[in-house]
């Protein structure tokens, strides 16, 4: 009986784990609701454009309309998204349900949205980047919101170890499970501004492309560190 209960708990937990594309769709819905309320809920076309937007995204993605449609179906099954049919409208529109699912106020949702859109960040970076979504009066207010997200059960955010030479703590979302910490830690240490192109998880070519991208990120990071070291002796 205990084994069956454990399996059930594990299945329930896994059902809440989101992949990188699901996270991007949710984050775009939450962002656009706060930034462009007159155009919210979003049509499929507007959502695709938001997912593939070049600014305020890390990594930049290239996701097809058909894939976004499939992601929306999954998110609706998980109760994270709802389809809205407005009177007189010719197309369906979509809205997120993150406030209800996770019981979040505007400031906490703004923080989480930034982490979903841009990956690992400091409290100061979150405050600067979320100014249009929520006006935090101080970094302490952001840190308070981050602590709230850390203390939730299950937690939505984690505080990462400080990087060598950095004084500020960095934070990452946990929406892809605990394993995402390793991935986000690596990404934060090696590069900013990567690109993810839609591919199957089981696609070997896609895996090789991701590995090449990871190696390029590492080389870029090492070059940057060398340049910083060299300037100390100029």
Structural features, described:
The chain is mainly α and 234 residues long. The chain has a single domain (13-226), classed as Arc Repressor Mutant, subunit A. It is built from 10 helices and 8 strands. It has helices at residues 2-15, 20-35, 44-51, 65-77, 98-102, 106-118, 123-129, 139-151, 180-190, 204-231; strands at residues 42-43, 60-62, 81-84, 93-96, 121-122, 157-160, 170-173, 195-197. It has a 3-stranded antiparallel β-sheet with strand order 1-4-3. Strands 5-7-6 form a 3-stranded antiparallel β-sheet, sandwiched between helices. A hairpin with an 8-residue loop joins β3 (81-84) and β4 (93-96). 27% of the residues are buried.
Quick structural overview:
55% of the residues lie in helices and 11% in strands. It has 234 residues and is mainly alpha-helical.
Please write out the topology.
Blueprint: H1 2-15, H2 20-35, E1 42-43, H3 44-51, E2 60-62, H4 65-77, E3 81-84, E4 93-96, H5 98-102, H6 106-118, E5 121-122, H7 123-129, H8 139-151, E6 157-160, E7 170-173, H9 180-190, E8 195-197, H10 204-231
Parallel strand pairs: 2-8
Antiparallel strand pairs: 1-4, 3-4, 5-7, 6-7
Helix pairs in contact: 2-3, 2-4, 2-6, 6-8, 7-8
Q: Strand count, sense and closure of the main sheet?
A: 3 strands, antiparallel
CATH class: Mainly Alpha
**CATH architecture name:** Orthogonal Bundle
Main sheet strand line-up: 1-4-3
Gyration radius, rounded: 19 Å
Tally of strands: 8
Find the CATH topology: Arc Repressor Mutant, subunit A
Residues in helix, %: 40-55%
Shape: globular
Query: Would you identify the CATH H-level superfamily?
Result: Winged helix-like DNA-binding domain superfamily/Winged helix DNA-binding domain
The whole-number mean of residue pLDDT values reads 83
Query: Number of helix segments?
Result: 10
């Amino acid at each position: 009986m205990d084994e069956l209960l454990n399996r059930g708990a594990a299945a329930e937990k896994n059902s809440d784990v989101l992949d990188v594309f699901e996270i991007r769709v949710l984050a775009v819905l939450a962002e656009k609701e706060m930034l462009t309320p007159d155009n919210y809920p979003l049509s499929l076309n507007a959502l695709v454009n938001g997912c593939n937007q070049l600014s305020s995204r890390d990594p930049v993605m290239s996701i097809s309309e058909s894939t976004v449609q499939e992601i929306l179906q999954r998110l609706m099954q998980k109760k994270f998204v709802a389809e809205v049919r407005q009177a007189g409208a010719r197309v369906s529109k979509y809205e997120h349900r993150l406030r209800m699912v996770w019981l979040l106020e505007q400031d906490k949702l703004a923080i989480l949205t930034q982490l979903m859109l841009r990956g690992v960040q400091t409290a100061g970076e979150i405050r600067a980047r979320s100014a249009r979504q929520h006006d935090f009066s101080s970094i302490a207010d952001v840190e308070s919101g981050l602590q709230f997200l850390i203390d939730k059960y299950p937690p939505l955010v984690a505080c990462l170890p400080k990087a060598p030479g950095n004084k500020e703590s960095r934070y990452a979302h946990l929406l892809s499970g605990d394993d995402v910490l390793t991935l986000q830690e690596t990404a934060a240490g090696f590069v900013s501004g990567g690109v993810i192109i839609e591919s199957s998880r089981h696609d070997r070519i896609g895996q090789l492309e991701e590995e090449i991208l990871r190696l390029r990120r590492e080389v870029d990071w090492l070059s940057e560190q060398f340049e910083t070291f060299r300037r100390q002796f100029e």
